[in-house]
Design a protein that fits this description.
3 domains; Nitrilase/N-carbamoyl-D-aminoacid amidohydrolase; six-stranded mixed sheet; alpha/beta; 560 residues
Length: 560
């Protein structure tokens, strides 16, 4: 059943909404103080559901998505060339799907129910495009706008996808204000959202016997062995108390050389360093190796999410924590830190700190480096864990469990040093969107399936009814009780011969056992399935009778 709506969105107004959404998004991402503008962005995108056709809704959403993603991801052109345009369109596609689904929900279920579904549609699609499908890409999610903002603290228990859910709920409350009967519900939702936004933050609980260690790392991009030795020797001179030395992902674009183990033994240091872990078929795992002061590899963790379209090794089959002398540490390599489904595994295993060796090529530009630098503070706030992220060319970071950046090495910054005290403050916790986001995705999938397949089901229902009416007219009221009884039992009793084929005989015996079933086969408009059965029986078992005077095997239409 379709529901009328208050008004359709006119084209000039739709253009203003689309432009406002793009502008609000970029303001939120470029100025930390304006992070809440991301809420206006969500409101403007959701308002496009009032467009007059699903085609317009999709293309306007696609245009907004392109305008949102293309400028900050301009480094795609540096990395992929003209193919970058396709990737920008793919990312914008999910905005188009969101607006199209929201518009169809409005038409099918009415304004109020459609608006209430908006938080689930938004969060479900954002989770799917960020975590689930092959081209998953979590950067530039609505929640990441708060990674450098103090406004995020109250959202900590919600998580990055929960932030989007909450803000879209707030936008839904404003949209519901268009209906007077929903004014009270709108006011209550806005009050609840404001309480959550401005609630006082609580610092993560700290273990009384928490251990600390001094960490130090140096930014090097594809260094030569001689350059690496010189940088390491300089590092221990400048940071003589460092317990753990960090180097980036792909410090070696090949196997780990033995001289690195010798260096750790000679200098009595633990080290985490990136190199290849080769396998038999010529492929490799992009791996972070942990070397102890004895010069032995005591732990290694492969990258769980290799970058698409790059030769980035095989995906790690498992994620395990390193049981270090100071406590449990999870090691997520570069891109892994961007994915909650990966990092949640370390938190579930009791990780007390997270380490992220990272390769960000200097040629990718400043925008890419600063976008990637948004991830570590957000993960620290979500989990309540400190994170050390050592990048090849910047931005390297040491964050506290509250997301504050204690130490940083800039971009560009070859040979720049990151150093600081890492305090392990007990295990972290997974935010609520670990459950909320998959639930929203499930709701979105069900709604999408219903909206896509309902027209086909309606067409099938109408077709079945048409066939049934045609068959009834053709056979002169076959489905009235007397003639159905004639077809089922009358021919045999009058003709005196049971010469039906086996399928006819089976149908006859079945109907004779229970005469009520014969009545049940009459056409009932209230049951689509009954109509389908009736049409099929009409076509498959046309009533016929043997001709006693014509010999066996001769069949004539039933005359009774």
């Amino acid at each position: 059943m379709n529901h009328a709506v208050d008004s359709e969105l006119k084209m000039p107004t739709a253009v203003l909404h689309a432009g406002g959404a793009v502008a609000a998004f970029h303001l939120a991402y470029h100025w930390d103080a304006l992070a809440l503008m991301i809420g206006f962005y969500l409101f403007a995108v959701a308002s496009l559901m009032r467009l007059g056709s699903v085609r317009k809704a999709f293309y306007f959403g696609l245009a907004v998505g392109f305008g949102v993603y293309a400028p900050p991801l301009e480094f795609f052109w540096t990395v992929f060339g003209p193919t970058a345009v396709v990737l920008w369109v793919v990312l914008g596609f999910w905005h188009g799907i969101f607006v199209a689904l929201a518009r169809q929900c409005r038409v099918r279920f009415g304004w109020s129910w459609a608006v209430l579904a908006l938080p689930f549609l938004w969060t479900g699609l954002e989770y799917f495009r960020s975590e689930v499908y092959h081209l998953r890409f979590s950067w530039l999610s609505a929640g990441f706008a708060f990674s450098d903002s103090e406004l995020y603290s109250p959202f900590r228990w919600l998580g990055v996808y929960g932030i989007g859910f909450l803000l879209m709920t707030l936008a839904s409350g404003i949209l519901l204000a268009r209906r007077r009967k929903m004014a009270l519900a709108c006011a209550l939702s806005i009050v609840a959202a404001c309480v959550l936004i401005f609630a006082p933050a609580e610092d993560p609980a700290k273990r009384p016997d928490a251990k600390s260690l001094r960490v130090a790392g140096v930014q090097l991009e594809f260094p030569m062995p001689s350059e690496l030795k010189e940088a390491l020797n300089d590092l221990v001179v400048r940071e003589p108390d460092a317990d753990l030395i960090l180097l980036s992902e792909y410090t070696f674009a090949g196997p780990l050389p033995d001289w690195v183990k010798d260096w750790c033994r000679d200098n009595q240091r633990h080290m985490i360093i990136g190199a290849h872990d080769n396998v038999e078929n010529g492929d490799y795992y992009n791996t972070a190796f942990v070397i102890d002061p004895k010069g032995e590899i005591v732990f290694k963790q492969a990258k769980s999410v290799p970058i698409q379209f790059f030769k980035d090794g095989l995906a790690a089959p498992t994620q395990k924590v390193w049981d270090s002398p100071w406590g449990k540490m999870g090691i997520g390599i570069c891109y892994d830190l961007s994915y909650r489904d990966v990092m949640d595994q370390f938190v579930a295993q009791g990780a007390e700190a997270l380490i992220a060796p990272t390769m960000d090529v200097e040629d990718w530009g400043r925008e890419q480096h600063h976008l990637h630098a948004r991830v570590a503070p957000m993960r620290s706030m979500e989990y309540g864990l400190p994170i050390v992220r050592l990048a090849s060319s910047g931005v390297s970071q040491l964050t506290t469990p509250t997301g504050e950046v204690m130490a940083e090495a800039p971009f560009p910054g070859q040979r720049k040093i990151l150093a600081g005290d890492l305090t392990l403050a007990g295990g972290g916790q997974v935010p609520i969107d670990r459950i909320l986001a998959p639930l929203a995705f499930g709701v979105t999938a069900l709604l999408a399936a219903f909206l896509v397949f309902e027209p086909g089901l309606i067409w099938m229902r109408n077709r079945v009814r048409a066939v049934a009416r045609s068959s009834t007219q053709r056979f002169g009221g076959l489905w009235s009780g007397p003639l159905l009884n004639c077809w089922s039992v009358g021919c045999v009793s009058r003709c005196g011969q049971d010469s039906y084929p086996s399928s006819y005989a089976l149908t006859q015996r079945t109907l004779q056992r229970d005469s009520n079933r014969a009545v049940g086969l009459q056409l009932r408009p209230a049951s689509v399935w009954a109509e389908a059965v009736a049409a099929w029986v009409t076509q498959r078992f046309r009533p016929r009778v043997c001709d006693p005077s014509g010999g066996a095997g001769r069949w004539l239409p039933c005359r009774h």
